[in-house]
Design a protein that fits this description.
By secondary structure, this protein is an alpha+beta fold. The chain is built from two helices and four strands; from the N terminus they run ααββββ. Strand 3 and strand 4 form a beta hairpin. The longest helix has 14 residues. About 7% of the residues have low confidence.
Length: 88
């Protein structure tokens, strides 16, 4: 019973208020188009499974790696979030 309680508490602590915008490696305002226009090379594209059109793009440059999660949605509009993997 103590183990189960510990797992529940740990799960709540790890999942509480984790928003991408709060993370130090979230690149606010950066889009895949911006990265291409600024010398980044598209390294890979992975289509995530599920009902939505969701993709994971990875871009590289000589000094950094950036990963962008892109969701294509006609009703809500396209959404993208890019993260500096090398945190530079």
């Amino acid at each position: 019973m103590k183990k189960l309680l510990g797992i529940v508490v740990l799960g709540l602590l790890l999942s509480a208020n984790t928003y991408a915008e709060d993370l130090p490696y979230f690149l606010k305002g950066i889009t895949p188009k911006f990265l291409i226009n600024n010398g980044y090379t598209l390294h890979s594209v992975i289509q995530k499974s599920g009902g939505t059109k969701s993709y994971l793009y990875t871009f590289t440059s000589s000094r950094a790696v950036v990963s962008c999660h892109v969701i294509l949605d006609k009703k809500r509009g396209d959404e993208h979030r890019c993260y500096g993997i090398t945190n530079k």
